[in-house]
Each structure stands twice: as C-alpha cells, then as structure tokens.
Hints:
Shape: globular
Order of helices and strands: HHHHHHHHHHHHHH
CATH class: Mainly Alpha
Distance between the termini: 48 Å
Strand content: under 5%
Largest sheet: none
CATH superfamily: ABC transporter involved in vitamin B12 uptake, BtuC
CATH topology: ABC transporter involved in vitamin B12 uptake, BtuC
Structural class: mainly alpha
Number of strands: 0
Number of domains: 1
Amino acid sequence: MINIILEPFQYDFMLRALFVSSMVGIICPILGAYVVIRGMGFMGDAMAHAVMPGIVIALILGLSPFLGSVPMAIVVAVSVGYLIHKKNVSVDTAVGVMFAGLFSFGLVLMSLVGDLTVSVEDILLGQILGVSKVDMLISFVLTVLVLVALVTFHKQLIFSGFDPVGSVVAGLNAGALNYMFLILLGISIVVTLHVVGVVLVVGLLITPAAASQMVMRRFTRAMLLGIIFGLFSTVTGLYVSYYFDLPSGPVMTLISFAIFLCCAIYERFFSQTQTSHLM
C-alpha cells in the first residue's frame, strides 16, 4: 500500500504536478465559493477561454505561458467590469462577447504561427505533467496573493455577494470590489490552466464549491469542505491518471463531478428525512 502511494513521486515531474495540483485544489474551491453566491459560474469558463491570446503570445516569444496569461486575465477582467458598469451591458453579454472574440483570436493566432512548443490539446486539456520549477514558483506566488486578498476583503465580498444593493447602501465601493474580484478570478484561472486546461477550468472552480454548499449551510464551513473536495479531486485524479495512463485534467474534473452527484443525492435524502421528521 505504501509503495502504491509513494511510487509516483519518485519522479520529479510528479512532485511538481502534486505541488501545483494541491494549490489548485485549495484556491479553486475558495474562490469558487464566492463565484457561486454571485451567480458567476459562466464567468470562470469564459475568462479561461479569453486568456488564450496571452498564452499563445507568450509561447511565440518563448516565455512561460504564465507571463502572457496573467496580464491577459487582468485585461479581460477589467474590460468585463468596464462593460458591465459603464456601458450598461449585462454580465452574460459582456462575458459572451469577450469569450468568443478573444478565444477565436487566440486560435487564429495559433494557426498562423503553426509551430509552437505545445499543442491545442495541451492548452485545452492542461499539461500538468509538464510543469517546470519556474511555473511552480509563479503558481505559488499568485496563489498566496489571491489568498491574502480574499482574507483581507472576505467580509466585504460576502456582503456584496449576498446583498449587492445593501452593500452599496452601507457605503461599500461595489464597483471597486467587483473589479478586484474579477482580477482575482482571472489570476486563479491562470493558475488552474496548467492543471485542467481551458475547457475544464470551471469543473474545479465551481463544482467543489457548489457540492459543499449543498451539504453545509454556513458559508465558512462550506468553503472548508470545498477545499477538502478540491484536494481530493486533484490528488486522487493525479494518482488515477498515473496508474491508468489517463489525462490528468479530465480525471480530476470527473472525480469532482462524482463528488457533486454524491452531495446532491445526500442533500436530497437528508432533506426528505428532515421533512418526514417535521411531519
């Protein structure tokens, strides 16, 4: 049993993959909890696609994808926030426009260049086993920055998430909070791209948080349970992909989905039990 647990990590690339996967398993459910209460699930998926041009440009210049996708994520976040607050465009419309336009531009740019160090499949489904030491360091720094910001503005984000109108009446700068949240979301998505790719980001961002909020009613407890779900999905997915030669990102997302289904069944059964006791 011990050999089964330790065997994958005799390889350096698996240790790097475990490190980055663990960070993603922590940061995604935490940020996802705020995303769920704000009803912004589509935003995460769209922003993951919209950073495509930044990734391609960085690869063309021979740089780490992080160095292209982080600035791109911030530009997308600010642009979406501007469209929502200054141009009276709905959230879905603003996100949809940025999603389609920038993702298409990234694909066209990639097609024009042709010979890149990674394939479209790597970008879409992740390349966790190709994470370098520099990528580890950047992932760690970005994760710490996001966590510090979320801890600092935790109360304000919860207030504005549950009661947007009330938060404005109370004197909170809702516009600045939304801009900050979108930027944090973009940075977290960039960290996640290496693990599950563009297509499956929402699976780790939303699913563990949504599953935990079905089981736990208190926000903080749901967030902690979401972290457990996220870590279990990423670490277990890494083991399964190693021993069964399967793509890591889809396996992690599938495990996360299975947890969601279990929580949905449990919530349904528990609610029925509670109702029968009350009757």
